[in-house]
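hey so i finally got around to running both of the ones u sent me last week. sorry it took forever, my laptop kept dying halfway thru and i had to restart like 3 times lol. anyway pasting them below in the order u listed, first the sequence line then the structure token line for each. didnt double check formatting much so if smth looks off just lmk and ill redo it

first one:
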Amino acid sequence: MLPSNNLTEINYGWVDQPNTRGTYDIIKSSFLTIFLCTWSALHLNVPAPYESYWQRWARKLRWALLTLLGPEFVVAFAAGQRSAAKRLAREFAQQGYGPPRWTLRHNLYANMGGFVLHPPDSKPFPIYGSHLVFLIKEGYLSLPKITAEEIKDKSKANGLAKLVTCLQALWFVVQCLGRVAQDLPVSILELLTVTYAWCTFAIYAQWGYKPLDVEVPTVLEMKTSIAEVLVKAGPAAAKPYERTPLDFIWDGRHSWTLNVQPFFHFRVDPRKRPIPRILNDTFPWLDLARDAILCVFVLLFFAGIHILGWNLSFPTYVERTLWRIASVALLGTTAALCLWEFLKGIRRAWRRLSINNEKVTIRNIYYASLMQPDKFDSGLPIYDEEYESQLVSWPQLMFMIPLTVLYILARLYTMAEALAALRALPKGSFREVDWSTFLPHF
């Protein structure tokens, strides 16, 4: 917990500068950091070729608002994309392709829609990295000659731009730690900003090699027709596709757009098929235990930061009580959702073992949950169609909806209170940190 502030020395209303730190200074530094954390840190997938500048800008604005409301969700999406890139690296390694010819940057670029396939009998459409592995393995394509530096050059932000965002977030956190070290009050808005900074560090750790705002993909011309590819693939390719004709290889798993929105009869965009862009909202799939544990730690720590404001100064006793309730609600709902996903993973692994007549042991559940069929003689199927079709159902939604509503209410309150509390701050909130006390002196 952060130390309790002296409630008897309160400045009410707006406090001017320049002789001291004013209300404007608190708002300016906090808002600047939040903006960088919610806008500059976003690495969205390649847009559809026909989309206008305003359509692309509107999509990024929607994701920025999502990051503002729930930055930990973007952390989970980013972690899922990095995990997918690492799985793809193993697939390419099995074909004899690895660094420096094929790197993690290539895999992230491939899974974000960086490669567009143009067969003779179909309009161009984006492909996933697993599609590319299949096409190379079957001899339809050769390994793209694009280098990691060429992919990096497509990014609209270089390492310096990303460094600026991280340094601003880090400096803000250091300032707050300095205030705590000198027993100076930390405002609720500043504490809330620290949560965004924490998530930004996690996002950049996952998206560090993903290009930013790529607009023009790499087109791969294929001489073989899609019809011929499907015929040679056999019965596995006979099922009608949902996204692209190569869904039988990998369909991108479930996403909010294509699985949840249709369930509620919401409009689904994009409507064109084959789908013109790789969706940004594919549900994360963390198949390595260390990745899953690290992601859960980041999410729980994000929620736990709000608990640190337990004893901070609030304008009224009611607001302090509501903050405490909201903080516990955020931590509780986050923990419940993580536990729910963990139990779903165990159930999915259990089903795979059962339908393949494999023994249900802790070891087998572990490898089945990691999607490693090579550990079993039966070669566990990676895709359990019957189970996957039930992932969006009313029984699950009856559990998820109350948690989601509780989370949103708690989140909205913390954001509103961060602004409302500025009307009455302890006098110490307007004192600057004396950095000279941290320097060695004689």
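and the second one:
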Amino acid sequence: MSNNAQAPLRFTTQQAFASRLTLATLTGRPLRISHIRPSSLTNPGLAPHEISLLRLLEAVTNGSTIEISYTGTILEYRPGLITGSAPGSGASGGVIRHEVAASCTRGVSYFLIPLCLLAPFSKAPMNVLFTGPGVITSATQAGDVSADTVRTAILPLYARFGISTNIELRIVRRSNPGPRGKGGAGEVQLMFGHQVRFPTTLHLLNPGRIKRIRGVAYCTGVPASNNARMIEAARGVLNPMTADTYIFSDVSSAPFQLTRDQASGSVKTKVGIGFGLSLVAESSTGCLYSADVVSPPSGGIPPEDLGQQCAHQLLESVSAGGTISSTAASTVLTLMAMSSEDVGRVQVSRNVIGGEQIIALGRDMKVFGLSGWGFREATDSSNDVVVSVVGKGVANVSRKIT
């Protein structure tokens, strides 16, 4: 529950924007972010995807206040109660429709990952439909993972925190980045119906050995042979590692988008054309490692190169060690900090824990009043680090006790 009497925590620049808003909503602490792209001559202040994220947080909470300066370079956010798709909170028929503008250059996973972190602490089940001309379901050049990776490599990890039922991510219509990385006109629905009082404490110290590899090759508005070529190239790299490799092929037509033409008026054009590959490796202890590649909006890269690139990225993620990949590290560490008041432990690769994003997350957690992290060398022969996190015990005050 938010406390509007508290002075806002102060941050600068747009770095870790989504992560800071998520932590503020989970802990109920107001924040103030200044110096958001102040030196940009063409687009100062908040970007379209950041404005869209603020609108999404306002839709799934009750009582949040958002104040943006005239230039858009200063934001003050006071979070409210996380209500999800509760009746009377903006949901229509139990579903919140979130429109993403065509100017958005980030993938839908930019919104899905923070939303999944908020959903277990919601008053009611979370049911959000992402639609509009700016929904991109594939990976992006900005570093966002695809919706397939969120579904296969991030959502299964919630089961380790006792959050496992009534969770589904549907990719209703696929899309890839359009010209200049904008637009896509895809459609994704997240249904998260498992709300808990506290996440359970996590102890994950054994990486195990890779036992299977799964993946999804997708193409939108291009010949299906692109999928077959990506799959063949990826299997050529992965088959020596494990024989249990299966990559599903998903072929879909490109969505149409209504555009304005001075000569002929309104014209329907195909958008979201492209192809990509998402791979996930699972170990004998249930650890997940992922990789994502997508064709650039300008094209020019053959499917064979993308398939080999994705397979090599997956092997690099596995060889880095640890029990969690860089894709899911922030989600796991955040849930560990929000769990019951006990010490959780997870074995992490030095490359992952030493990344700029994870270091910034640890610093922000201290600012928001969450526990710091403890480190020690792993006891096995690897060069990993065991990270200890004391749960803060921030309860879901909206959930009814039964």
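quick thing i noticed on the 2nd:
Residues 13 and 58 are 21 Å apart (CA to CA).
anyway thats it, ttyl
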